[in-house]
Design brief:
heterodimer; A: 270 residues; alpha/beta; Purple Acid Phosphatase, chain A, domain 2; 5-stranded mixed sheet; 4-stranded mixed sheet; globular; B: 258 residues
Amino acid sequence: MKIAVMSCIHGNYEALDAVLLDIDQQKAEKIFCLGDLVGYGPYPNAVVTQIRSLDIPTCAGCWDEDIVEGLNSCECSYPSLLAEKRGKAAHEWTHQELHDENREFLAQLPHGLSQDNLVFFHGSPQSNHEYLLPELDAFVALERVLSANADVLFCGHTHVPYVRTLDTGSLQVRVEGVGIEAKEISFSAPMKRIINVGSVGEPRHGRPNATYVIYDTDTQEVSLREVPYDYQKTCAAIIEKGLPAIFAWRLAQGLEYAERADDPTHVCTR
Amino acid sequence: MSVLNITVVAGPAGCGKTTWICRQIQNLTANENVIYFSPGTGKVPIDQTRLAAEFPNLKVFQDGQEVEFLQQLATVDTVYIELGFYLELTSIQQILDELPYQALAILPPKLEYSEYHAWADKIIKGADIDTSMVSNRLWRVPSSGQVIDEDSLQEFWYEITHGAYGQVSRAKGVFDVADGRSLYADFVAGIPATEFLELDLPRHLEGRPQRFSGLEILGNNLEESAMKQTLEDCYLSEVAITQHQQQVKQILLEENIE
């Protein structure tokens, strides 16, 4: 069975529309969404309404959580003071714009989803705010998949798609503690995969095109899809609706608006 | 008495006038008295700041110091005057009156015909800049007294030099950052980007810096109010400045103890 997995739409309705059309053409039988429906983009209500109307299984993203609970960022969210100011301006705008029924929808989104040996999280099983970067230490990466009792972990949040295969291997762990005798544990871990599906509405791969993933559950084949759309329409709406104009320029360049992680050793403390 | 050598350096923006002057000063003997004057930079003396940091013994003059500059001519061996591209080449005659000078143009290798060719006594090949782009707007803003978040500056500089605020052909600036250093930023369209250069100035770790910092941008369709706002968004608050300075002082103290 072919499934489509998408994430990080960020109020970009034009991009979502193009991706849904592409999913239809790819003949995917089921769609999963990894959250961040809102934030930065000009159409938060339209995006939430569309996801709701199509009844797409969706887990909560960090933006969805923030817009319900309020900002509570750890240092990994913003790379600079400038980015923080822009991020907070976008948060405030989205907070004002979002309709109550859509906020309620975001509030009831689960942290994660699963289907057979597949699990779906926005950031990681640990946190919606944790970045599973491709360079993340292999042991930590493996721990994240094992902790979810899955073979394949789908995530988003970084906005740059990738597929990482953690090959079958044997592991030795030494456990030490004050007053505890040191103990060595050996175990073997079968092959696991982390599939980051990129971002529909705010790509960071240097081009404005939306990205998502088609996964075949029978063959385990992964197809990273890159979908062009009329991003200029979204850029025009960003300016028209009074969001920071620099967001339009950054969207056109395929750059993040404000949040970014570049430290693969950082573990989110939220 | 030694003969006074006055060299007037001109050329298009970004071709390497200040860089050429730096090289000449480096090659002079230590006991030569050298002065530098660049008229027309107003309250944003970026090149003067860079040169003064690099050559502490160099006497540097800026707008408003013309009388002092002329008075110094009798006491020095070598004079470099840099004419920004925005000045008339004939304006140097008003400054130097009847004093003899060598007119030197730093020009891109592919530029074959220009007003500089008729004016210069000598032509030096400079950076291979694109002269087809006619930039019609020069925007300058001083930021003295402000301390900038360095990561924000990197982001802002990327946006400036990649067209977020209009088509930029040349940008340069001097900025005080949170750890007390003064950074020099330099961009010329078509020339490989360079890292920020740390100026050889003492770290400023006592409140707001009382020295020059500022930004100059040349280009077309510049969104000046957006740039000004973004620059201001990079400024650290009074509290943040104090916190950063205390942290850096503590780190430096610990390093000295070790």
